Amino acid sequence: RTASYTPSGDVTAATDAASKADVAVIVVGVKSSEGSDRATLSLAHDDDALISAVADAQPRTIVIVCAPGPVLMPWRHAVASVLITPYGGQEAGNGVADVLFNDVSPSGRLPFCIPNIDNEQRWTSEQYPGVDSVMSYSERMSTGYRWYHKQGDVAPAFWFGYGLSYTKFEIGDPRLLEEGSSHSIVADVANVGSRDGVEVVQLYVTWPSHSLGASEPPAQLRGYRRIRVSAGERSTVHFEVTSDMLRLWDESAGRWLVPAGTYTLYVSKDAGTLGRGITVAWP
């Protein structure tokens, strides 16, 4: 394994080195802190330009993004892969190297959506940055993946919960198990790839379309399971459906309530690939 380093400020040297290499790796990032907001979700203009130039010279380009949150990736279709490392800590470098050199199959999943453009959710000035130092949270729960679900006509660049692995998993249709008054959702997870790996299976819930549930965005995350499956094997994940999972805050009553009615539950790899839902009547 031989690696050469080129300073990011010299685009000509970077593209020349990339064109002669087997793989190009670009490390970029942004920073943030308490008490302030990023003015944009974009990388620095020079970073975007460097990535595009290197990707033109070397199709097998890997971009490592060190960021505290979502970052716009207008070049995402031109590169071979993107590795995001939010808050990696002092071992971030070793972790990245383990993934790059195929010593570890990645199993992280995005804890946020990555939008296509700045302000894709169409915040008003009253919502952000606010007027006279006062912000209105009129969007309520319609933020992140919940906003995309509620809109229905736009998808992010990458969904909440998304992440790749060096193997491939298939999640079967969910099944309902009932025993007395208890309910469980189960689904089979098959590793159909050539190496062992970890999948993060996610449970999303849609509330009844009346009462408290009428104003709720559809398909909200209510559980997840991290499951290791050997190559060629399958396993089963179980989610117990509980009242804590289904309860909503009733502002007029000042307490948590579970709306009676029919719920739809989904077992999925991420918020954007929900598949077939299964209905549960509660109580």
Bin the strand percentage. 25-35%
> From the structure provided, what is the oligomeric state, counting identical versus distinct chains?
single chain
Any idea how many domains? 2
Mean pLDDT: 94
The CATH superfamily label of the largest domain reads: Immunoglobulins
Low-pLDDT runs: none
In the CATH classification, which architecture of the largest domain applies? Sandwich
How far apart, in Å, are the first and last alpha carbons?
Answer: 60 Å
Tally the helices.
5
Biggest sheet statistics:
4 strands, antiparallel
Number of strand segments = 13
Function: Beta-glucosidases are one of a number of cellulolytic enzymes involved in the degradation of cellulosic biomass. Catalyzes the last step releasing glucose from the inhibitory cellobiose.
InterPro entries: Cellulose_deg_GH3, Fn3-like, Glyco_hydro_3_C, Glyco_hydro_3_C_sf, Glyco_hydro_3_N_sf, Ig-like_fold
Subcellular location: Secreted
Pfam families: Fn3-like, Glyco_hydro_3_C
Describe the protein's topology.
Elements: H1 11-20, E1 24-29, H2 45-57, E2 61-66, E3 81-84, H3 92-100, H4 145-151, E4 169-171, E5 175-179, E6 182-191, E7 197-206, E8 220-229, E9 234-241, H5 243-246, E10 248-250, E11 255-257, E12 261-268, E13 278-282
Helix pairs in contact: 1-2
What does this structure look like?
With 283 residues, the protein is α+β, with helices and mostly antiparallel strands. It has two domains: 11-100, Rossmann fold; 165-282, Sandwich (Immunoglobulin-like). It is built from five helices and 13 strands. The strands form four sheets. Strands 4, 5, 6 and 9 form a four-stranded antiparallel sheet that branches. A four-stranded antiparallel sheet has the order 8-7-12-13, with no helix packed on it. β10 (248-250) and β11 (255-257) form a beta hairpin. The relative contact order is 0.11.
